Amino acid sequence: MYVAVKGGAAAIEASWRLLADQRRGDTTLAVLSVAQIREQLPLAVDRVMSEGSLYDPELAALAIKQASGDLIEAIFLLRAYRTTLPRFGYSLPMDTARMQLSRRVSATFKDVPGGQVLGATYDYTQRLLDFALLAEGDDENAGQEPLASGQGLPVSMPRINALMAREGLMETPQPTSQTEPGDLTRDPLMFPAARPLRLQALARGDEGWLLALGYSTQRGYANSHPFAGEIRRGKVAVEIMADELGFAIDIGDIEVTECQMINQFAGNREHPPQFTQGYGLAFGGAERKSMAMALVDRSLRAGELGELVTSPAQDEEFVLSHADSLEASGFVQHLKLPHYVDFQSELELVRKLRAAHAGEQHARADDGQAIAPAPAIQKAA
Amino acid sequence: MMDDNYNFGFLDERTKKMIRRAMLKAVAIPGYQVPFGSREMPFAYGWGTGGVQVTASVIGRDDVLKVIDQGADDTTNAVNIRRFFARTTGVTTTEKTAQASIIQTRHRIPETALEEGQVIVFQVPMPEPLFRLEPRRRETITMHALAEYGLMNVKLYEDIAQLGAISRTYDYPVLVNERYLTSPSPIPKFDNPKMHMNPALQLFGAGREKRIYAIPPYTAVRSLDFEDHPFEVQRWDHACALCGAADSFLDEMIVDDEGSRLFVCSDSDYCGERRDAGYCGTQQAVHMPVNLLPLPLGEGRGEGREEGPRAEALAPTLSQKEREVIQ
Amino acid sequence: MNDDLLLSVRGAGKRFMQGNRLRWACRDVSFDLYPGEVLAVVGESGSGKSTLLRLLAARLACDEGSVHYDVRDEAGTAAAASAAGEAGLVDLAQLSEARLRWLARTDWGFVEQHARDGLRMNVSGGANIGERMMALGSRHYGKLRGQALSWMERVELDVDRIDDLPGTYSGGMQQRLQIARNLVTHPRLVFMDEPTTGLDVSVQARLLDLLRELVDQLQLAAVIVTHDLAVARLLAHRMLVMKDGQVVEQGLTDRVLDDPQHAYTQLLVSSVLTP
After folding, report:
1. Are the Cβ atoms of B161 and C98 closer than 8 angstroms?
2. Structural domain for A35, as ranges
3. Is the domain of A236 the same as that of A320?
4. Which chains touch B (3 or more CB pairs under 8 A)?
5. Which of B145, B160, B162 minimises the CB distance to C141?
6. pTM of the full predicted structure?
7. A360 is a domain residue
8. Which chains reach chain A with 3 or more Cβ–Cβ distances below 8 angstroms?
9. Is B265 one of the catalytic residues?
10. What is this model's ipTM?
11. Which residues of chain A, if any, have pLDDT below 70?
């Protein structure tokens, strides 16, 4: 005799215990510390902060530990935590021109004021697995004085795009309205979306999605002929306006990577040609994300630059509706939830239609003549 | 006991106010999708965040909460959500529809009729009824504003022309208050009639898509159809094996390797109440024939195929009832 | 002012930014159209005739001048005092988006040059024809199907194809389907953009015959854009000749074709290959 399956609560608790075991792994090995993750997996931490929309390396490291290394799950944890935080207000716009640089490259000129600073980058490594890293204990570099990055750099290293704008070669797009930009963490994204909101959505958007779309623009799906005008990484001050004091105060530094792309020039007889730009910004050293973001930012500006919209990367609703990894992951994975009631309904219809179809075939075979395709369904109760 | 680390209902009061403002607008315009600033919740998008935010915004200390998924209280997702509210509000929870003041549901409306004063909160994955025909929000917003629903009617016509029947069996589109085309959420069409002139307040929350809509009590809700192809609900040939109900939505369960099926009420509370009242079903699984229909022409008919004992066993031996269905 | 004037155009013009310059695609177009009258707009490609058609059908807004139409309210009676103050005629620029869309679905038809632009390619012929009726609230499947069948007969389409997708129809059949789809609400005014271009000569001829019959039977007014003088000769009562965005000549079709006054018209007429 059938007994309804119960015990959902017990099953859930058991799954939590199994999850904790999975996270811990082999208990003969040392527990991974949050500090280790923060220090030794910084690029993972950077991604989680950027897409989690929260700058806190320790919390991001904790999320990564709790999520057993699943970065999208970690991003989810950080975002959910963010929801509970009280909001004091908005900072002043960050001045990335005043950045304590650890890396600065430009592909547009052989030499640029301030010079090119390679910094810590995988770009010129050979991608050979370093089996020396398998060994327990510290590697050779430990114990030496850390190379001071950014030492000896000029105080001011103006950005290429700014220099070109001074000469009139680069457009300087202004916001189309004087109202405050909306806040994507408070209000839903509605279309058409102005550039400030688009940039917010891209900044917290999934890196893989933006990378693929940016890549598509390089392969002919809307070409903007990009050049990397300026990519810089370093620490920037965050300032807020203190109402009681009447002036801005510096509440700390955060590390960001900024990318400014120089793109296809536009112009006409009234307006001489200028280069156009795309912009990307990410926390920490997330360079790939900042570059992909800049490419997609530019392609989404097609409408305002009078370009024909022909490809997915230019379709604002398509790009931005699917950019959030939480939404995408949640909805894709929700298919695991029970759907048997709806499936039951589909089953019933398919059986009915097949029965009707067979009925017609029987009738046709029996009578040896074609029956008008009046569906038997119409007569069903 | 309520967890003091969080505000009552998890959301802060400003967020609840924002959501309530959206709900007021929704109630004032039945069936119209109101955008709202959906927050990231401790559940994944797609797993009920919209419903949870709606419930969290209306629930009070004296409320009694019931949470169901697929009609049952003990499915894992319903358990998870119910525990979340127990933890963040401390309100009484119940499995009995008649005792609940708020019912949060995924994919079903309870069989027991709802009453004035009750609130039913639906979890909605895709609030836009036209999305399968027109994915672009910019277009559908205009269609709703101008009540241009030709696209949906064309689709229904096409279903009948090609299939002989409308192909939607769940999330069946309805016209609310004779004005807005609305998605009832993925409830089976069996449940659509319950929405019409319901004494309870029906609220719909879509967290990922960031929309809220509502059907106030005693509002007209009409499932789209044609006059000569009227909307009809599913019917089963069987009654519930446990309680004998012939008028409820039945879950079909496969119980053995031969494909025997057991049909049981999807609404666990309804079934339980009936059994408590003394009703009883057959308590037996139903044997379904291996191949209800003859093989399509050309496959295994005549030419070259061995007619052996296995082929004979597969030749359908139709029961009288099944013959009737085919004829 | 004649009370049953259907369409009145005064000094209509439209300009575009093309590359570097501002260019008037069409300018200073004026004419009146009465119920049952067919007007052909003739010219080479680039003459501005397609832009003009889109101005008339309110798909583009005039940058200069105006287009007035005799709008009926939903009950089918002529509109009361209009914005322009003239009995029945309303400036299209004054109408809301909702009203224009309603007009386009009921009292107007628009036959596109490429049938694919004027049909729903992913639903059957029958659904295409029935759509306007469904948008107006018709809810009886059998009647909708019956209407679709009768219209298919009327435009000489094989009724067995009613459930087939338009992609399986030939070019000529797609045009006929488009025509049926537009006429099902008995519009008083139909816009046609090169309705026969791209079809085989014999198919064109049959389609033109059909159009002539329908215009006659249904008392349709029409504005037909074409570069083919034969189409104008066969279908139109009057014609406009356009060159570089301007109307160079207009008048009764027979008069313009038999006794062209403007040098360009003379050139057009003389270059038509005589059989």
Report:
1. no
2. 10-82
3. yes
4. A, C
5. B160
6. 0.83
7. no
8. B, C
9. yes
10. 0.85
11. 1-7, 139-156, 267-270, 368-381
